[in-house]
C-alpha cells in the first residue's frame, strides 16, 4: 500500500462560522483571519494505492460552479486536483474508487464535471465506484433547510444516475473494517448524518483522515465546534471519545482542511487533549 496526499485547492471560510460560539480573540491565535474575517482552508484529499485499486478520499469543490459561487470562498494558491494527481503519476481515469466522507460541496464537488458540450453533468472519474452510505445518502438527497445549501444536487444525483454509486455497510461498532475497502471507518453524526472517518493502517502507524470531525489543529479544544455542525452537542462527545483514543493510541491525524498543518498527533494534558507534534507527510514517510 502507498498513501499520497492530494491537494485539491485552497479557499477561505468565515472564521466565526468555523468556530461557532468561540470568541475570535481565542480562535484567531491559531487561525488568523483576514480583513473580511476569512481564514485559510485546504481541500487536502488522500490517494490510496493498493495493488490494482486506486482510491481517492474526497475530491474538493471541483471546478464546474459559477464564478459567483467561487467568489464566496476566495480561492487562493496554485493547487488543483488534476495537477496533484499528475504529480503523483496518475490521472482521473486511473481512479478505481472514490470514497466520500460526506456529500457537502467542499468534499464531493470534484466528483462530477460538465460533459463535453456543457449540456449536462457526468462523473469526473468514469472508471470509479463512488462510495457513500445509505443513511447519509438519504440525508443528503432529502436535505434539511440548514444543510440544503451544502448538498448541491448537481454534485450528488449524477453519481446515482451513472450507476457508479455504492454503499458501505454501516457497522454496529464505531471502528470496524468496511467491506470491500482498504480501511476501517468511524461513523460520526454531529457534523452531519453518518459522516465517515477513515482510519488506515500504514507502515506501522494508524492514519486517520479527519474530514470535518477535526477541521484544523486549532479545533482541538472540545468547545471549538463549527457553526456548520447540525448537532453540536453530539459532536462534543464524539470528538472527546475520538481524541482520547487518538492520544492513547498515537493516531496520526490527517487534516483535510488545515492549510498549514498536514498531519498532527495529540497528547493528554491538564486542559484536555492538545496538540503534540505536527508533521508533513514527507517527514513521516520519506
Characterization of this structure:
With 286 residues, the chain is α/β, with parallel strands linked by helices. It is 23% helix and 30% strand. The chain has helices at residues 15-19, 24-27, 67-71, 81-87, 105-108, 134-141, 153-161, 232-249, 281-285; strands at 2-14, 38-50, 53-57, 97-99, 112-114, 121-123, 129-133, 165-168, 176-177, 184-188, 195-202, 205-209, 252-254, 263-269, 272-279. A seven-stranded mixed sheet has the order 9-10-11-12-13-14-15. The chain has a six-stranded mixed sheet with strand order 1-2-3-4-7-8. A hairpin with a 6-residue loop joins β9 (176-177) and β10. It is globular and about 55 Å long. The two termini are 14 Å apart. 44% of the residues are buried.
**Unreliably modeled segments:** 172-178
Assess the beta-strand content as a share of residues: 25-35%
What is the CA-CA span between the terminal residues? 14 Å
Helix-strand pattern: EHHEEHHEHEEEHHEEEEEHEEEH
Helical proportion, percent range:
10-25%
Strand pairing plus helix content: what structural class?
alpha/beta
What is the CA-atom radius of gyration, in angstroms? 18 Å
- Total strands: the figure is 15
**Going across the major beta sheet, what is the strand order?**
9-10-11-12-13-14-15
Average predicted confidence as pLDDT? 95
Write the layout of secondary structure elements.
Elements: E1 2-14, H1 15-19, H2 24-27, E2 38-50, E3 53-57, H3 67-71, H4 81-87, E4 97-99, H5 105-108, E5 112-114, E6 121-123, E7 129-133, H6 134-141, H7 153-161, E8 165-168, E9 176-177, E10 184-188, E11 195-202, E12 205-209, H8 232-249, E13 252-254, E14 263-269, E15 272-279, H9 281-285
Parallel strand pairs: 3-4, 4-7, 7-8, 12-13
Antiparallel strand pairs: 1-2, 2-3, 5-6, 9-10, 10-11, 11-12, 13-14, 14-15
Amino acid at each position: 500500500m502507498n498513501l499520497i496526499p492530494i491537494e485539491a485547492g485552497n479557499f477561505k471560510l468565515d472564521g466565526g462560522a468555523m468556530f461557532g460560539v468561540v470568541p475570535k480573540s481565542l480562535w484567531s491565535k491559531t487561525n488568523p483571519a483576514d480583513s473580511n474575517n476569512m481564514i485559510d482552508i485546504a481541500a487536502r484529499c488522500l490517494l490510496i494505492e493498493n495493488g490494482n485499486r486506486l482510491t481517492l478520499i474526497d475530491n474538493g469543490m471541483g471546478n464546474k460552479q459559477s464564478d459567483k459561487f467561487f467568489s464566496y470562498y476566495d480561492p487562493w494558491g496554485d493547487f488543483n486536483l488534476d495537477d496533484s494527481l499528475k504529480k503523483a503519476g496518475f490521472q482521473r481515469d486511473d481512479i478505481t474508487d472514490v470514497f466520500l466522507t460526506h456529500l457537502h460541496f467542499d468534499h464531493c464537488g470534484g466528483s462530477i464535471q460538465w460533459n463535453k458540450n456543457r449540456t449536462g453533468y457526468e462523473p469526473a472519474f468514469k472508471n470509479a465506484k463512488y462510495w457513500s452510505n445509505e443513511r447519509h445518502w438519504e440525508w443528503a438527497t432529502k436535505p434539511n433547510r440548514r444543510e440544503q445549501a451544502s448538498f448541491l444536487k448537481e454534485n450528488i444525483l449524477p453519481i446515482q444516475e451513472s450507476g457508479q454509486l455504492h454503499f458501505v455497510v454501516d457497522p454496529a461498532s464505531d471502528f470496524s473494517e468496511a467491506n470491500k475497502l482498504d480501511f476501517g471507518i468511524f461513523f460520526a453524526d454531529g457534523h452531519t448524518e453518518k459522516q465517515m472517518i477513515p482510519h488506515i493502517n500504514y507502515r506501522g502507524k494508524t492514519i486517520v483522515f479527519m474530514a470535518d470531525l477535526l477541521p484544523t489543529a486549532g479545533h482541538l479544544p472540545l468547545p471549538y465546534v463549527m457553526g456548520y455542525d447540525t448537532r453540536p452537542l453530539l459532536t462534543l462527545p464524539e470528538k472527546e471519545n475520538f481524541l482520547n483514543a487518538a492520544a492513547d493510541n498515537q493516531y496520526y491525524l490527517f487534516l483535510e482542511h488545515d492549510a498549514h498543518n498536514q498531519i498532527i498527533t495529540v497528547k493528554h494534558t491538564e486542559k484536555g487533549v492538545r496538540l503534540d507534534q505536527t508533521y508533513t507527510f514527507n517527514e513521516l514517510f520519506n
